[in-house]
Amino acid sequence: MNKVRTRFAPSPTGYMHIGNLRTALYAYLFAKAKDGDFLLRIEDTDRARYVSDAVKFIQDTLAAAHIVPDEGPDIGGDCGPYVQSERMEIYKKYAEELVEKGFAYRCFCSQEEAKDDEEKAFGGYGRHCRDLAPDAIERHLKNGDSYVIRQKMPLTGTTTFFDVVHGNITIENSELEDQVLLKRDGMPTYNFANVIDDHLMNISHVIRGTEFITSTPKHVQLYQAFGWEPPVFVHLAPVMGKNEDGSVSKLSKRHGATSFAELVDAGYLPEAITNYVALLGWSPKSEQEIFSMEEMAKVFSLEGLSKSPAVFDYAKLDWFNGEYCKAMSDEKFAALALPFAGELTDEIKEKWLYLAAILRTRVARLGEIADMIAFFRVLPEYGVDLFPNKKNKVTPELAAQILPAARDALEKVQDWTPEDIDAALHGCIETSGYKLGTVMWPLRIALSGRKVTPGGVTELLYLLGQKESLERIGKAISML
Q1: 292 pLDDT more than 80
Q2: In this predicted model, what pLDDT tens digit does every residue of 205-231 receive, in sequence order?
Q3: What is the DSSP string of 217-266?
Q4: Among candidates 157, 166, 163, 178, which has minimal Cα distance to 222?
Q5: Model pLDDT for residues 79-107, shown as the tens digit of each residue
Q6: Which residues are CB-contacts of 333 (< 8 A; sequence separation ≥ 6)?
Q7: What is the DSSP-derived secondary structure letter of residue 308?
Q8: Are strands 239-242 and 310-312 parallel, antiparallel or unpaired?
Q9: Please, which residues have CB within 8 angstroms of residue 17's CB and are 6 or more apart in sequence?
Q10: Would you please indicate which residues are annotated as catalytic (active-site) residues?
Q11: Residues facing residue 341 across a β-bridge
Q12: C-alpha to C-alpha distance for 25 and 65, rounded to whole angstroms
């Protein structure tokens, strides 16, 4: 078997959707699993939709996701250039070769005439120039008439190709239009350029979305015309999103963040995103879910790919992200979480590592942090209705008795450390005769104005500082 070589060939027309990321990831993992090469190729022939900074964005996204090309723009390799707009002479040469062999022809119809045909007739363009006499072609060329080069499709029979995921696929040749290979401006179409490039770059496996299945017979016809061996085709089932009514449709903005960059901005870790996306349509031969990139590359196989669409589950991504956060050191998590924390008080800045250690095992994504800790900066407005708690048998009246005793105990703490704070609280509990939860509940409400907080009462008191803590408890006492 020849060396496995895969490629990711995006068009620089926007940002990288989750489906694009998964395609790149699978191509990369398969190449690494087979000790092969993974290439990045930029297919920028659609100049009308070209976005100037998209190439850099694609490269930055792959780098952040730890998908590292072996060859590509700014990397080099033996098969460059790796940007299609820099390969124009190559496409012209092969298009002319097809014309000479009789597998393609020059079409002199105006764009309007061709468009009218496509709107009127099944199969697209009406093939007016397909069998032009040589002298008619010569007259057009002498007149300097512009033309496109079209592929001369067989009019009868079928085209069959094998797909790793979907098996044998057969298309009637009568359904294949004489597609344009080279446009009037010399730019190749996607269907032509990607075949030429895949062959010249020795691509062994083409991994892409199912939307390209209908184009593949055209590609197979091109391979046959040139006498080239086609690569192995692998068409991935789409990634779907769950709608409010429980149905699913192709993942889009209405389902939430849909690009790698948006997910990172929302506070998901690149490693967690990549890990989760890998399992959207691929099953390892084990129950393991958390994988490093190296571990995935060792076990990835095309046999594990699913024919059924995968549903993107944000709750499941939350779980993955939470597991990655838990596995980090406190120091690393603190550094990653800080940009998501929002405005911090001086007290919290000094104790950020302590707070980060508490948050690390409690967050699903970093984007939640600012809201989770906002009460440290400003105590939210709240009412006495937060104090009742059936489990701990707390009523507003009981809270009004507990909080003054707790405040008195905390006022006497000399060294405001978690250990001394905790000792003072337990002393108050022993003196009062109330259970732990009965004392802690009203204190949590008084300190945070919330029923749920990251960390317990001791941690809240330490992080707020003695002065701020006593002021907040005093405010609650006045309210009650």
Answers
A1: yes
A2: 999 999 999 999 999 999 999 999 999
A3: HHHHHHHHHHTPPP-EEEEEPPEEEE-TTS-EEE--GGGS--BHHHHHHT
A4: 178
A5: 999 999 999 999 999 999 999 999 999 99
A6: 325, 356, 357, 359, 360
A7: S
A8: parallel
A9: 251, 258, 259
A10: 253
A11: none
A12: 9
Residue 385 φ then ψ, to 5°: -65, -15
pLDDT of residue 114: 63
Placement of tokens 């085209």 in the chain: 159
| Strands, E assignment, 9-136 | 37-40, 104-107
462, 358 Cβ separation under 8 angstroms: no
User: Omega of the bond prior to 81 within 30 degrees of 0, cis?
Assistant: yes
* Residue pair 149/125 in contact by the 8 Å Cβ criterion: no
Among left, alpha and beta (phi > 0; psi -120 to 50; other), residue 232 is beta
**CB atoms < 10 A from the CB of 477, how many?**
17
**CB within 8 Å of 53: residues ≥ 6 apart:** none
Contacts of 224 (CB under 8 A, 6+ apart): none
SS3 105: strand
Structure tokens at 115: 């468009």
The token pair that represents 432 in the structure block: 């009062």
